[in-house]
Amino acid sequence: MLAACVRPCSWGSGTNGRLGHGDTIMQLRPRRVAALQSPRIVHASAGCGHSLAVSDKGELFSWGQGHNGRLGHGNQETKMSPALVQGLLGHVIVRAFAGWEHSVALTREGVLYAFGAGDHGALAQAWEEPATPARVCALGDDGACDVAAGAEHTLVRTRAADVVAFEWGLGSQPGARRAGHKMLPLHVFKAV
Fold this sequence. Notes:
Layout: E1 2-3, E2 9-12, E3 27-32, E4 41-46, E5 50-55, E6 60-64, E7 79-84, E8 93-98, E9 102-107, E10 112-116, E11 134-135, E12 144-149, E13 154-158, E14 163-166, E15 177-179, E16 182-184, E17 186-189
Antiparallel strand pairs: 1-2, 2-3, 4-5, 5-6, 6-7, 8-9, 9-10, 10-11, 12-13, 13-14, 14-17, 15-16
């Protein structure tokens, strides 16, 4: 569990450093994440094996299991403590979500970035696993105003008030259409 606030805390299983305390020790009670005491954290998300935090300056931090590049640091290394995602410097991140094996980050301008496992279409990319943040172009010119990441899918609310899903479409998640080897967004809700 990760609680976002000025001084974020985490607790629960410390496997793969997902709590950000620099170790793998289970925490039964909330403990402040020391590496995040300096930047003011305005948003946080906990995935299965990794966590994300957004500072008030629009910086994205990630830590935990790095498998499939889900941390966005250009490799698959596990990070035991929060580390700045260098690939998003110069962008003002307002929200970020940790899925099962992928991550998504939304900029103030409505641009969506994704990284990690994309084999189920969660990244709106064609079977790729970018280890650094990659712009999601499948939204076209709509732009995003909100985003959420699930196990193997991502939901996006566009500025046109549509809700768009990215995923394989064969499981229990909302659905996407497959065209050859490309994942296409499915408009779950189309604004009128």
